[in-house]
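COURSE: Structural Biology Practicum
ASSIGNMENT: Worksheet 4, Part C
STUDENT ID: 0417
INSTRUCTIONS: Below are two proteins. For each, the amino acid sequence is given first, followed by its structure token string. Answer the questions at the end about the second protein only.

PROTEIN I
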Amino acid sequence: MLEQLLALKRRRESRQRQQLAAGNQRYERLQNSLHALMEERKQLHISWREVGLQSKGKLARERLHEVQRELESHFQRDRALDDEMVQIHQECEQWQREKAVLQQAIQRSRVEQEKLIYVLEEGQDAYS
């Protein structure tokens, strides 16, 4: 009976470790996405400044409207990138909390397994 309980606890720990590994992989993908978004935002800001620099001085009405559309487009994309980055940060923070809970569960499982192993060994020694 105790052997079955030990086997059950080992399977549970194995599943938790698999969850931890899968979560860590997802976290890495999120971090890579975050870095890509940051780079895209940096390039957007460079482009934004270039549009501003090219539009110095007097502009014809048509060119002014074109520059305004470009700047508005840059602004909208910047807001979208910012929103995506905030969402990724939140997902990363959520994973960190879940990871801590999983690690605690794995640790508890290891302690419980050690106790069961000790009880099993002591039980065998008593019958020897």
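PROTEIN II
(use this one for the questions)
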Amino acid sequence: MIDLLKDTRPRAILFIVMLGAALWFPHHGQHWPGVAGDFPFDRQPMPLYRLFRLIAPTVWLNIALGFILVMAQAFLVTYLNLSYRLSQAQTFMPAYFFLMFSTLYVPLQRVHPVLFANFFLILALNELFDTVKKEKAIENAFNAGVYVSVASLFHFPSLFLAGFTFLGLLVMRPFVWREWGVMLLGVAMPYAVTAGILFLLDLPLAEQFAFGPMGVGKLQDNWPLLGFMAFWVLLGWLSGVLILNRISMKLETRKFFVMVLALLLFSVGIFVLWPPAFLELLPYTAFSLSILFARVAHFWEQTPLLKALLGILILGVAYLQFVG
């Protein structure tokens, strides 16, 4: 199993797509009757998600686009891992971990706003990572702000990531007030453009911006999932501590992992403050865990206990898929 996860040959791409399809497609017909209905996000859509619903009104188109989004994020995570050498072995392993964690909750295996938001979050992180060796990072800061703002136009609570991007910029480079100002401008611009378009179309702003609370599904109905993720989040945190304290690496790489660990803490913190948001945070948590576990992959191979944990992960994913 370890050898399969570490495979760098082109066939690994085929295995990743097959895994994504196996996790994504089998359950849709039994969990939701259509694209609209009792899904909370469909009752209070933000402007860009509302636009998406007009573009993809049919069930199977919705499913297909959701699958494309998940696969794109899996490969984006791998791209970050390869581009910034976050792992000692340059493999597709982050994609496997991302798919297993991000698809755990079966009723969310469809297009939903957090899928879009997480996609733009990864793009924002790429911009922040790219600033580490630059003397001036005005363009990167602006782009990161725009990406986070666009994410929140799909899923408004994702605007909390704006605070995370400012923190990330401070981690990656010294404080430069122009970069912070430009990032703030980047966050504001998509909202200004959207409000202007809605005004020209004579659409009421209050009805188009859904600032409803996070929370999809009932947490008390998902104790197996909650316990499973709590275990792996704890293991992810311990992996992050191990990476930062026991593994030698370049300073810029260490900064990358500080940001990844901070994102994991952001997700856990939001869950503590608002438990119903737990299910929505799975894509964010999946990103952090996939990067952290890929970095300590050589320990998985060398330690029998960690091999057993990998087996537990795979069996747990299969079980949660089965029980829905």
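ANSWER KEY EXCERPT:
Q1: Residues 29-37 have pLDDT under 50 and may be disordered.
Q2: Residues 171 and 304 are 36 Å apart (CA to CA).
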